[in-house]
């Protein structure tokens, strides 16, 4: 009987861990509905993030795996979320999603060098202005602890480093261009 109790406890703990991971990744629980009411606001993420530069500067950086990506003025990678929309620009990352993926907020007019897409802003439910690139809301990832990291790339199959045009950065294909020789 004690082994049955232990198995039940392990099953419950495993299920809770899977649920917590899926919620934090934002791959489920995000909807295309209007932003949630500001009652569960997360004005400060659990992991300290760099403060936004006053002029909201956006930069283009070269990444060895992903190519050209967009960063904030401090060099932190900016990401886009597939559950958002760009026409009209809408953020669907709220609540626990926003704790893991804090919005890239700005206080001034956004500007950028090397960016081919249009920079803009949207107003979030809490009144803050979120940076957009070609209409796509931009975010930081709480798992990036220093400039240049891309730890959020591909999480949940929905989070991508943004390209200078606002697209999804993808790793260059490593497949050969010619079929392998058969040895004959």
UniProtKB/TrEMBL annotation:
The UniProt regions of compositional bias labelled Low complexity, in chain numbering, are: 30-46, 171-184
Membrane-traversing stretches: none
UniProt key word Chloroplast: no
- Name the segments for region: Disordered: 30-55, 157-184
Listed Pfam families: Lipoprotein_15 (PF03640)
**Entry's InterPro entries?**
Lipoprotein_repeat, TAT_signal
Signal peptide segment? 1-22
For this chain's UniProt record, which GO biological process terms are given? Answer: alkane catabolic process
Record keywords = Lipoprotein, Signal
Q: What protein name does the entry list?
A: Putative lipoprotein with Yx(FWY)xxD motif
């Amino acid at each position: 009987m004690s082994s049955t109790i232990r198995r039940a406890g392990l099953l419950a703990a495993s299920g809770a861990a899977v649920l917590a991971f899926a919620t934090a990744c934002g791959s489920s629980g995000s909807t295309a509905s209007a932003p949630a009411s500001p009652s569960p606001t997360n004005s400060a993420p659990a992991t300290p993030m760099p403060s936004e530069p006053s002029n909201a500067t956006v930069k283009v950086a070269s990444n060895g795996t992903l190519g050209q990506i967009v960063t904030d003025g401090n060099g932190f990678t900016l990401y886009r979320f597939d559950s958002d929309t760009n026409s009209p620009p809408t953020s669907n990352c709220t609540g626990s999603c926003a704790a893991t993926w804090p919005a890239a907020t700005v206080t001034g007019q956004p500007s950028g060098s090397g960016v081919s897409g249009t920079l803009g802003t949207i107003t979030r439910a809490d009144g803050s202005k979120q940076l957009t690139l070609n209409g796509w809301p931009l975010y930081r990832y709480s798992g990036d602890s220093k400039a240049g990291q891309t730890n959020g790339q591909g999480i949940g199959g929905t989070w991508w480093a943004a390209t200078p045009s606002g697209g999804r950065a993808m790793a260059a294909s490593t497949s050969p261009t010619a079929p392998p020789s058969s040895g004959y």
